[in-house]
Amino acid sequence: MKRSGEVVVNQVVLGVMAVLVLAPVVVFLLTALSPDISGRPALTQLTWGNFVEAWHVADLGRAMGVSLTISVCAVAGQLLLALLGGFAFGVLGVTGEKVLFPVLLLGMMISTEAIIVPLYFQFRDVGLVGTLPGILLIHLGMGVPFGVFWLRAAFRALPRSVFEAAELDGAGPLTTLRLLGAPMVRPAIYTLALLSFMWTWNDYFLSLVFLQGDLQPATVALGSFQGRYTTQINLLAAAGLIVAAPVLGLYVLFQRRFIAGMLAGSIKE
What we know:
This is Carbohydrate ABC transporter membrane protein 2 (CUT1 family). It is a multi-pass membrane protein. It is found in: Cell membrane. InterPro entries: MetI-like, MetI-like_sf. Helix content is 78%, strand content 0%. By secondary structure, it is an all-alpha fold. It has two domains: 2-50, no CATH class; 63-263, MetI-like fold, CATH 1.10.3720.10. The protein is globular. The two termini are 35 Å apart.
């Protein structure tokens, strides 16, 4: 009987939390579908054309193409470097690890605002301001430290005997990583990929400073659109939902793997 009461209480609490989380989302969606420029919800008259108008007026097709290019390239580079670094620190052992690893983690501790000015002038001197390679280098530099930290923890949670057996069988480090290490930490890799994509896609500050003109991504295009159409709340909400859709879609598709990856490494075998 006591067990049933706990289940009921848990379900009630979860239901209330779900309503609190979903209510703003529903209101935002109704605002985007409102025929009134003030964004007042109208359940009897949903205007889906707001999304089409916002897409064309804000030039979101071009901007989201730029965002997708930056995000995919940045995530691929971060995953590759994080896998190599995480495997080196977590399994192989690195000479001077007690010094090198804390130095690597400094990349997670220094805020963007503290380095943005010198970074801009350095990139300007070498011609990387206003280019996609320039913004990709910045995302790699800021994302790889966390990726190495994340995958190092995942590798250290695996049984050491697996890698020792592979070494005895004559497998080299890259072969061991490709055939054993990477498949065993796949949930952590999925989670890192989703987090990296989300952070890169949602970036506004770096893109605003380092990219101009046709290379501006969706977040900057949305900011410009907001400045020009401040009074048209329904179009602003529609544009915001369009820009947020890729991240939301990826999370819905891979939510189970994302949660599994968040839990990976919490229990060390």
